[in-house]
Amino acid sequence: MLYISREYVQDSLDKSVAPAAVCDSGETVVFQTRDCYDDSVTCEERPLGDRRDALGNPATGPLYIHGARPGDILKVEILKIELRSWGVMCSSFSYGAFAGRFPDPKAVIFEISDNKIRFDEKLTLDCCPMIGVIGTAPGGEGIGTETPGGHGGNMDCRKIGEGSVLYLPVAVPGALLSMGDLHALMGDGEVFICGLETAGEVTVRVSVLKDCRMPAPFLVTEDKVMTIQSADTTDEAGKKAVLLMEEYIRETAGIDELKAGMLMSLAADMCICQIVDPQMTVRVEFPRQILERYGWKPV
């Protein structure tokens, strides 16, 4: 099995970055990741971290996949997410719904054990591991790992977890897939600026899809399909996600736009992924079982 070490990280998804590894379509690969603070915040006494050269939201990679060409779709099956034994949350004075509330930086370390998070002496929470940053290299200029977009990136979508399948656009030869910014747990919106930030290992299977129409980034879970879109505002991102889902339903189910729109108003859910990045991210979820009635099957 191919293994990409945490030594191969960057803070930009960029076609000029040399591949950390090369694989064939259909191969299984393990990405070892750092946390979003570049593993620099290791104690509560130093909330700004131990290193001045720490990267922001480092992503492990990139992975070059043989046969991937611009216009293809990269299918990423997330087979397993393993977390380290602790996570950290840091306050922010500048971002999130609580901006302006915490002028002095604070960090809190939380223990992770047996898939549980010890929040305090009264509360233990279940882990729900997710990948915050995952994307391919854009065709133009590189995009920082703090920013989400059509290439994927820092979408902070809590549904991108173990057992899900993410479809990403291929804009450059080899796709150049990178990922990082694992969260042991995060609520929709990521309202405080962060989830429970941690490091770990992600095992994925990557496959190149040819001649495949897909509103990527596109996510398939056990019971839902999802469009994920980012924009300057949540309103813009939500509208983009809705319109792409409507088009996908219309083409997949073979129904007209009136019925597709009505069906979405009855069965689709719009959810805010995050409100803290340079662009806001919204997803629209739609039940798989409805699409399956019209003959839909995952690719």
Per DSSP, what share of the residues sits in E-state strands of 2 or more residues?
35-45%
What name does CATH use for the topology of the largest domain? Jelly Rolls
Strand order of the largest sheet: 1-5-19-7-16-20-21-23-22
Major sheet summary line = 9 strands, mixed
Helix and strand pattern = EEEEEEEEEEEEEEEEEEEEEHHEEH
Q: What proportion of the residues is helical, as a percent range?
A: 10-25%
- Low-confidence segments, ≥5 residues, pLDDT <50? none
Number of strands: 23
What is the tally of helical segments?
3
Written account of the structure:
By secondary structure, the chain is mostly beta strands. The protein folds into 2 domains: 2-39 and 54-83 and 128-209, Acetamidase/Formamidase-like domains (Jelly Rolls); 218-293, Endonuclease I-creI. Helix content is 12%, strand content 39%. It contains 3 helices and 23 strands. A 9-stranded mixed beta sheet has the order 1-5-19-7-16-20-21-23-22. Strands 2, 4, 6, 12, 14, 15, 17 and 18 form an 8-stranded mixed beta sheet that branches. Strand 10 and strand 11 form a beta hairpin. The longest helix is centred in the last third of the chain and has 20 residues, at 234-253. The mean pLDDT is 97.
